[in-house]
Amino acid sequence: MTHQRIRPFNTADTYPEQNLDNDLCQAVVTEGGKTVYLRGQCPQNLDDFRDIGSHDPVEQTHKVMQNIRQLIEEAGGDMSHLVKVVVYITDVRNREAVYRTMGEYIKGVHPVSTGLVVSALARPNWLVEIDGTAVIPA
Hints:
Blueprint lengths: L3 E3 L2 E2 H4 L8 E2 L2 E3 L4 E8 L15 H18 L7 E8 L5 H12 L5 E6 L10 E9 L2
Parallel strand pairs: 6-7
Antiparallel strand pairs: 1-4, 2-3, 5-8, 6-8
């Protein structure tokens, strides 16, 4: 089963003033399968919950997306099963760096996406948190 991606687009077309290259879509339709709801992932290790010790939004986003990929794989899926992400950033000036980095992990996937700028995350040094939903075919 392949998820139906309605109105796929790339952020280079919708935000031409920003240096972005994310494959997204307006809606995803799934049927059957196993739904995986991911907790908001932060720049910390899954095994020991230690921060990665970086204040760089690119490095933090890499860790967040690696965690998302690892959790989906542990559930029996892969990144192509990702259907939705919600991105929380604490500084709008980091948006392009966060989304460019996230885009490396979702190239060709086209999940739906919501982005929010928030005043803070659970730890003051965290710049990005991303939660997601994946549907793994039956």
